[in-house]
Amino acid sequence: MARAMFLAVAVSLAIACGPTTVVAQQTPPPPSFQTSGNQDFDAWRDDFARRAVAQGRDPAVLSRLLSGISPDPRVIELDQRQPEFVSPVWDYVTNRVTERRITDGRALKSAIGDTLAAVEQRYGVPSGIIVGIWGLESNYGEADLNWTPQAALSTLAFEGRRRAQFEGYLLALTEMVERGLAEQGELRSSWAGALGQPQFMPDVYLTTAVDWDNDGHRDIWNNRGDVAASIGNYLADRGWRRGEPVFDEVRLPSNFDYALADGTARTVADWAARGVTRVDGSPWAGAENLQAQLFLPAGAQGPALLLHHNFGVIRRYNNSDRYALVVALLARAMDGRPSTLERSWPRQIGSLNREQTLELQTLLNGLGYDAGPADGLFGSGTRRAVRAFQAAENLPADGFPTATLLNEVRARSGVAVEAAREPRGLGRSGVRELQRLLNRLGHSTGTPDGVIGTRTREAIRDFERARGLPVRGRATDVVLEAARDAAG
C-alpha cells in the first residue's frame, strides 16, 4: 500500500513538473580587461584570470580586483633589497629594537592588558612575543599600508621568481572578497601584499585570522583584539610550546669548534658537556633535555646564542634569524628585562654589501665551494660555502662573511686583493643625501642643506662610532656608502 501511494505521488509530480531537464555545469567565461600598457603583463593577467575562473573563482570579483593595475617597479626593487639580507646584522637589530618601539609597546600592553592576558591564556604565547611581532610588523598599527594587495601580488606573480606562490595569494585574496570577509575598499597592504596590522598574507588570513570579539568580522586592520588573537593563534598553530624559552645567550670555551654552529640541534646537556654555559653563569637546571641549535649571528667575534624550538616558531612568521632575534629582544624589553645582548656586536670587522657578496659567491663557486646562485643575497647556501672554505683554510669556521674573508677568497682565486684607498669628499648634493640618511638612522643633522656644520660633523662621528668605522667626522664617499647600506 505504501509503495503504491509512493508511485502515485511520483507519477503526479512527473505530470505536474513535465519532462526532466538535465542542466550541464559550465565554466563561466573569464573577465576581459583593458590594456595596462605592458603587453607581457597583460598576457600573464589574462591567463591567470582564465585559470582562476577554471578553479572556481568569481569572474566578476577577478574583474574588479585586476582591472586598472600594472606592474609596480618599486615593488620589485623592495623585494630585492629586503633588509634581512642587505643590512649588517647589528644595524638590522639596533635599528628595530629602539626606545620608541619599546615605549610604544609598553603603552599598548598597558592599554589592552586584559585582552593580551586572555589571549596568552588561550594560546600559550607570551604577550611580549605578540606585542613584539605587532610592533615589528606595523609599529602597532601606525605604519602606512601604501599598496593595494592585488597590485602588489600581481606584480610579484608577474615578475616570475615565485610565480606560483604569489598566484596562490591572489587566489586567496579573491576568495576573501567573494566570501565578504573584507571589502575591496579596505584592502590595504605592504609592498609584498601582506594585510593589516599583523601583516598576514591572504591565505594565512583565511586559515588563521581570529574574530576575538565575535562581531562576525576578522578585522586585522582596526580591531586590536582580533590582531592580538590572530598573532597568538598563528604561533600556536605553528607549534608554539607553552612555557619554553626562545633563546639563551651563552659563552663558548676557548678553542671551541665553531663549525658546530651549522644548524644541528643537540640537547642542552650535550652543549653543556662541550663547555657551553649561560652568559650570566646561571645553571641549566630543568633545561637539560631541551633541543637547541648554536647560532653565531655575527661570527666568532660576536654574541653566541642557543636557539630553542620557539625561536623556530617565530621564524615561521618571517623566515629570518634576525627577525626572530628582534622579536625576542623586544619581548624581553616589554617584560622589563634588557633589550640588548650581553656581548657587543663586533662592528669593527665590517660586513659585505650586496656587490661584494655577489663577488664572494662567484669566487667560491669557482673554487668548488657551492654557494648556490650568485645573487648577492647571503643565505644558507652561501653560509655553508663560506664555512667549508674557512675549514679548508684552517680559519674559524663560523660562516660569517667579512672584507678580510673576501680578500682571502680573492687571493685563493688569483684575483687582485682590493687595495685601501683614501676616502673622497662629497659635493653639496652628496652631503645633502648623507644628511637625509643620517637623520633617518637617528643621527640628527638638522635640516638637510648640504652644508657641513658642527651638527652634521657630530652626527657623522656618532654614525662612525656606531658602525665601527674610523671616527673622523668627515663627509666622504665611504661614509655615504655605509649610510646607504645601513638605511637598507
How would you describe what is shown here?
This protein is mainly α and 488 residues long. The protein folds into four domains: 73-120 and 133-237, no CATH class; 247-334, Lysozyme; 352-413, Muramoyl-pentapeptide Carboxypeptidase, domain 1 (Orthogonal Bundle); 428-487, Muramoyl-pentapeptide Carboxypeptidase, domain 1, CATH 1.10.101. Helix content is 50%, strand content 4%. It has 22 helices and five strands. The protein has helices at 2-17, 39-54, 59-66, 73-80, 83-86, 89-94, 99-111, 113-123, 127-138, 149-159, 163-178, 202-208, 224-237, 268-273, 309-317, 321-334, 354-366, 380-392, 403-413, 428-440, 454-467, 477-487, and strands at 247-251, 266-267, 277-278, 291-295, 304-307. A five-stranded antiparallel β-sheet has the order 2-4-5-1-3. Helix 15 (309-317) crosses helix 16 (321-334). The N and C termini lie far apart (85 Å). Residues 1-24 have low confidence and may be disordered.
Sheet having the most strands = 5 strands, antiparallel
Strand order of the largest sheet: 2-4-5-1-3
The dominant shape is globular
Number of strands: 5
* Spatial extent as radius of gyration: 28 Å
Distance between the termini: 85 Å
- Overall helicity: 40-55%
Search tags:
single chain; about 500 residues; mainly alpha; Lysozyme; Muramoyl-pentapeptide Carboxypeptidase, domain 1; 4 domains; 5-stranded antiparallel beta sheet; 22 helices; disordered N terminus
Briefly characterize the structure.
The chain is mainly alpha-helical and 488 residues long.
